[in-house]
Specification:
28% strand; five-stranded antiparallel sheet; alpha+beta; Rieske Iron-sulfur Protein; seven-stranded antiparallel sheet; 365 residues; 2 domains
């Protein structure tokens, strides 16, 4: 049975969010991509954890490790870099890459201390703190998996962005191809949602939209520049897709564009505030020789992000009015262009425990 809607109150309720964090966001926990720390000793301070944890390459094995000194609880490393040891800038306590304290100035005996670390699990270069073999097998069923293989790619940059709406609204907009033509003049000149392929699995969904090869369609200056670069630097003449958007439920998105992969992951901060962390990866050829391609892609991407923010904010403003007025949403979805939204609701039903499920699907009174 198709699930057409969930209770609008769940987008504004602190109790619902508390249950979601426990039941939906604890597993699988995405840490980053191998390309963020390609060599031994490379680290990346993770913004999701306010840089209190680092992604660390230890002899080519990826770990997530505490970045909090065991002495006075200070944050030690900033941003990213390459290290032989971890040195706290406050009192110079020093740890090896295993996390063992090896130096404490002016102590007669070095205290016995260890930074907590966890070896990460790998799927296609994406690193998780906890993902089951079953979930990995499911992900391997993705018919578009080759598009997300980052062989011969390199990490470029990471951006963070605060969204002033509910995390579920973010996902609904991500799964909605119906708004692309009327609301995204740039994006709709780059992709053609009339030619849309969906793939669904219990743990993820994929939407693949064709490349819009038309040169006469109206666009924006930003997308005209990027599309021109895509055509100029494309690797073959048969550019079938303009974008492939994958969602690993509930909050991890992989986006393929020509010679570009974007990994986004979102985390709710409160019912109407969501942290979006976005990683950009480019083919090594593009990353090494064509900075204008990267600049044009990122500008186009951010143009669409801004438009998506407006859509989501409008939706949640309308939802809030309906909640306050004791009105319910219609639950009408386009059978093709919004096909992914009921699948997301199905995931919420199947993954949530009874105390959360009843909040999603209780009768609105």
């Amino acid at each position: 049975m198709e699930i057409k809607k969930i209770n609008s109150c769940s987008f504004f309720d602190e109790t619902v969010l508390s249950l979601e964090l426990k039941q939906l966001f604890s597993h699988p926990s995405y840490a980053g991509h191998r390309l963020m720390v390609p060599d031994h000793g490379d680290y990346f301070a993770l913004p999701r954890h306010q840089e209190t944890k680092i992604l660390l390459n230890r002899n080519q094995d990826p770990y997530i490790m505490s970045n909090i000194c065991r002495h006075r609880n200070a944050k030690m490393l900033d941003k990213r870099g390459s290290i032989d040891s971890i040195v706290c800038p406050i009192h110079r306590w020093t740890y090896d890459l295993e996390g063992t304290l090896i130096g404490a100035p002016h102590f007669l005996n070095t205290p016995s201390c260890q930074l907590h670390s966890t070896k990460l699990l790998d799927w296609n270069g994406l690193l998780f703190e906890d993902i089951t073999e079953n979930e990995i097998l499911n992900l391997k069923n993705n018919p578009f998996i080759d598009y997300f293989s980052l062989f011969d790619y390199s990490f470029h940059s990471l951006d963070t962005h605060i969204c002033n709406y509910n995390w579920k609204t973010f996902i609904e907009v991500y799964l909605d191809d119906y708004h692309v033509a009327p609301f995204h003049p740039g994006l709709s000149s780059f992709v053609n949602c009339k030619y849309l392929d969906w793939f669904f699995c219990d743990t993820f969904s994929v939407q693949a939209v064709s490349f819009n090869s038309s040169t006469s369609i109206q666009s924006t200056k930003t997308y005209k520049t990027w599309k021109s670069n895509v055509v100029r630097y494309k690797k073959n003449n048969n550019l079938k897709y303009g974008a492939i958007w994958m969602l690993i439920y509930p909050n991890i998105m992989l986006e393929w564009y020509p010679q570009t992969v974007v990994v986004s992951h979102i985390y709710p901060l409160d019912p109407q505030k969501t942290l979006n962390i976005t990683e950009f990866y480019y083919s090594e050829e593009i990353a090494s020789f064509y900075p204008e391609y990267i600049d044009s892609q990122k500008r186009a991407y951010k143009e669409t992000v801004k438009e998506d923010d407006e859509i989501a904010e409008r939706i949640d403003r309308g939802r809030k009015f309906n909640v306050d007025s004791r009105l319910e949403n219609s639950g009408i979805n386009h059978p093709i262009l919004e096909k992914g939204i009921p699948q997301f609701y199905k995931y919420l039903r199947n993954k949530s425990q009874p105390n959360l499920r009843e909040k999603y699907f209780e009768t609105f009174v």
